[in-house]
Amino acid sequence: MTDHYDVVVIGSGAGGGTLARTLAGSGKRILLLERGNFLPRELCNWQSPQGPAAGRYTSRDTWYDAAGNSFEPRVHYFVGGATKLYGAALGRLRPADFGEVVHMDGLSPAWPLSYDEFEPWYVKAEWLYQVRGLHGEDPTEGSWSEEYPWPPVAHEPLVQQIADDLDRAGYYPFHVPRGIMLDERNPPASLCIRCVTCDGHPCLVHAKADADLIAVRPLLSRLNVTMLVNAEVTKLKTDPRGRRVTRVIVRRDGVREEYRGDIVVLAAGAVNSAKILLRSASDRHPAGLANGSGQVGRNFMRHGAADVVALGEKPNETVFAQTLGINAFYLAGDPRRPSHSAGYGRRWPLGSIQTLPRSARLAREAVAFRLMTEDLPRPANRVTIDRRNHPHLAYAATNRGEAALLLHEFETMLSRSSLPLTRDETVTVPDETGAGIADQAGTCRFGTDRATSVLDVHCKAHELDNLYVADASFLPSVGAVGPALTTMANAIRVGEHLVRRLG
Ligand SMILES: Cc1cc2nc3c(=O)[nH]c(=O)nc-3n(C[C@H](O)[C@H](O)[C@H](O)COP(=O)(O)OP(=O)(O)OC[C@H]3O[C@@H](n4cnc5c(N)ncnc54)[C@H](O)[C@@H]3O)c2cc1C
To answer: Which of 38, 50, 78, 86 to mutate to test the pocket of ligand 1 (most atoms within 8 A of CB)?
Structure first.
């Protein structure tokens, strides 16, 4: 096996897997390095994470919080990364998210690209990940240049009843875009069998459009793609001038190896990508590779999320519940504008609401919702490493006031609906220890200013000629939408740039 490739991609999740898939057709020699292995297909895939399968799909790692206390992060080091466990809710950010947004706790910064500039890659990601959705239901969404490739996943009867009711009350409910291989018009052709949930579980029948199945596996038979699993990248080394990454240091099955690439793409997830850059400090890059700005590891974000339970009068028989979304509180707005009905028109942007599957631990009448607020990039919310190269995550949540207001609006919405639904006091408050890092993002943000960003607009490190970062680290802000589709779309964008660059 050669040790020299045109492109070395580190990490096979939403960013790295999608980027490798984008590059593969170019015929360039690609090496995909993945720390984990393929996730086993077994009955446990569908068992509750609270049951006998507890922790089975959480990879072993130890991180530390700001006070130096160790914790086990809920990370998933598999081919496909966190998408093996994700809920496959594949929504776009709203156009406003690409601009500067004023929040209760400060500013969410503008991107170096507008929504309209980014939109074509959303379409490509939606086709690649087979997203089921419907444009035009939610007034906060941006323009679209193509319809979704498949119709949305239909609401089950109770969820449909809630949607109709909220529609009458002016809350503009919409179908959540989902990356699942469900064909309701032709059930025999459908891979998805509408089981309990996708969120938090691997899919036993391989019906979830994750980065493993959609992006990586189709590459394995290609002669120009080499994939190594159990291959943890520990360090990047540069030429004496510090301008090019010349060697990728790997620990594979416990053995040290080195690989070279004309281009190196880091996509190990927001915390691990920052960790690798910080570990790669050298004389030329004393604060960490590509870290002349001191921004590597900073601006860590995750979403503020609260799972809230409402109680109905009848048992909730819904199996596949994650189909209904409400963005009526997503944007701040002018209450005097007549088009702003119901929730529209408040001082702060509050976030999004989605239905969730009913957990077996809840009452049979329970209907579960997730309330998600935007987390702001704060320099002090950051990843650092200690002398033993262990990552430390300092994090304090932002916009808690907005989360409280969203909960209040949610209660008002329930009370205005004609359905007998009342909020239960059972609220799952987000975990503040740093262990809840499902939506980790922002540690190597892109931008035009070298002093405040790590990457340029093509996601190339400002200070290096051949190093790119293409996972959720690049995000300058996260909105109140899951980051997966935006990370996939960006990986396609960066991949296309690399195809052009490599000629
Ligand atoms: C339970 C759960 C539910 C979620 N649901 C949703 C959802 O419904 N919608 C949504 O938008 N988002 C969701 N997310 C978040 C989404 O999965 C992530 O935002 C997305 O996967 C991030 O992509 P990434 O490329 O940054 O990281 P990942 O997809 O995690 O990929 C990183 C990859 O790098 C590998 N790696 C790490 N370190 C190294 C190393 N040193 N060397 C080599 N490889 C390395 C990892 O093993 C992994 O494969 C969910 C996440 C979880 C955990």
So the answer is: 86
Give nearest CA residue, ligand 1 atom 48.
81
CB-based contacts of 246, cutoff 8 Å, min separation 6: 237, 238, 239, 260
Within its chain, how far is the Cα of 419 from the centroid? 33
Continuous segment of H or E residues that includes residue 63: strand 63-65
186: left (phi over 0), alpha (psi -120 to 50) or beta: beta
Strands 255-266 and 245-252: antiparallel
Ligand 1 atom index nearest CA of 81: 49
**Whole-number Å distance between alpha carbons of 479 and 493:** 20
Q: What is the pLDDT of residues 68-104, one digit of tens each?
A: 999 999 999 999 999 999 999 999 999 999 999 999 9
Would you give the DSSP letter of residue 279? H
Sequence-distant (6+) residues with CB within 8 A of 476 are: 109, 110, 111, 112, 299, 377, 442, 445, 446, 447, 453
CB count in 10 Å sphere of residue 461: 26
Each residue of 5-39: pLDDT tens digit?
999 999 999 999 999 999 999 999 999 999 999 99
Which residue in 456, 440, 441 sits closest to 293, CA to CA? 456
* Nearest-CA residue for atom 2 of ligand 1: 86
48 phi and psi angles, rounded to 5 deg: -60, 140
**Where does ligand 1 bind, in terms of residues with CB under 6 Å?**
10-16, 33-36, 76-77, 81-83, 85-89, 199-200, 232-233, 267-270, 272, 276, 438-439, 471-472, 482-485, 487
DSSP 8-class letter at 284: S
Question: Regarding beta strands 245-252 and 231-238, do their DSSP bridges make them parallel or antiparallel, or are they unpaired?
Answer: antiparallel
DSSP bridge partners of 393: 65, 383
User: Which of 35, 229, 374, 492, when mutated, tests ligand 1's pocket best, judged by the most ligand atoms within 8 Å of its CB?
Assistant: 35
Three-class secondary structure of residue 242 per DSSP: coil
Which atom of ligand 1 lies closest to the CA of 83? 17
Please state the pTM of the whole predicted model. 0.96
DSSP for 299-311? S-B--EEEEEEEE
* Beta-ladder partners of 235: 249
* Beta pairing class for 63-65 and 391-394: parallel
217 contacts: CB under 8 Å, gap ≥ 6: none
